[in-house]
Amino acid sequence: MIKKAIFGGTFDPIHNGHLHIAYEALYKLNLDKIIFMPSGNPPHKLNKNITEAFLRYEMVKTAIRNEDNFDVSDYEINRDNLSYTYQTLEHFTNLEKETKWYFITGVDCLMDIENWKNTEEILNLCTFVVFNRTGYSIESVLKKKISIEKKCNNKIVFLDIPLLEISSTNIRKHIKEGRKVSHLMPESVCYIIEQLGLYK
């Protein structure tokens, strides 16, 4: 059976930490492909200043252009309405019925998943995979994981992988301060940011 994962995120911008997580998931879960899914209009970030979806998509596209096991989808950014994870999963599971689907996201999303629309449907449509992030203890993550598993009768995979201390928030902050960020992301992404003057 083909095994594919959707890696959801704002990717504003994509950086080496995202690529590190994707590779760890690829090998640990024995996946055939990971599809990066830049969020379109996520309901939990409506009041935040997010870079135009097409630019975030282009940055992901150029970051993974030489990676055979990675792909990027514009499904969510092409939606006119709010982007809900359950709709994205419905679309892809219907598109490839024989594929085993995974959904990769950070533990912060696990902590908030009960506030997501159609939580149980999400967990029924895929194997939900979360990676650790700074600021969350493994004990609290595992406690929440067990709680959701019991409530929704579905298994959740926790990827306890070494973290690269890189975040999109800090990258945007560094750029605004005039600091170098070329060591934090692929060169092609840096080029787009510099050419368009993003995050200044």
TrEMBL record:
<keyword id="KW-0547">Nucleotide-binding</keyword>
<comment type="function">
    <text>Catalyzes the reversible adenylation of nicotinate mononucleotide (NaMN) to nicotinic acid adenine dinucleotide (NaAD).</text>
</comment>
<dbReference type="GO" id="GO:0005524">
    <property type="term" value="F:ATP binding"/>
</dbReference>
<keyword id="KW-0808">Transferase</keyword>
<comment type="pathway">
    <text>Cofactor biosynthesis; NAD(+) biosynthesis; deamido-NAD(+) from nicotinate D-ribonucleotide: step 1/1.</text>
</comment>
<dbReference type="InterPro" id="IPR014729">
    <property type="entry name" value="Rossmann-like_a/b/a_fold"/>
</dbReference>
<dbReference type="Pfam" id="PF01467">
    <property type="entry name" value="CTP_transf_like"/>
</dbReference>
<comment type="similarity">
    <text>Belongs to the NadD family.</text>
</comment>
<keyword id="KW-0378">Hydrolase</keyword>
<dbReference type="InterPro" id="IPR005248">
    <property type="entry name" value="NadD/NMNAT"/>
</dbReference>
<dbReference type="GO" id="GO:0016787">
    <property type="term" value="F:hydrolase activity"/>
</dbReference>
<keyword id="KW-0662">Pyridine nucleotide biosynthesis</keyword>
<keyword id="KW-0520">NAD</keyword>
<keyword id="KW-0067">ATP-binding</keyword>
<dbReference type="InterPro" id="IPR004821">
    <property type="entry name" value="Cyt_trans-like"/>
</dbReference>
<feature type="domain" description="Cytidyltransferase-like">
    <location>
        <begin position="6"/>
        <end position="173"/>
    </location>
</feature>
<dbReference type="GO" id="GO:0004515">
    <property type="term" value="F:nicotinate-nucleotide adenylyltransferase activity"/>
</dbReference>
<keyword id="KW-0548">Nucleotidyltransferase</keyword>
<protein>
    <recommendedName>
        <fullName>Probable nicotinate-nucleotide adenylyltransferase</fullName>
        <ecNumber>2.7.7.18</ecNumber>
    </recommendedName>
</protein>
<dbReference type="GO" id="GO:0009435">
    <property type="term" value="P:NAD+ biosynthetic process"/>
</dbReference>
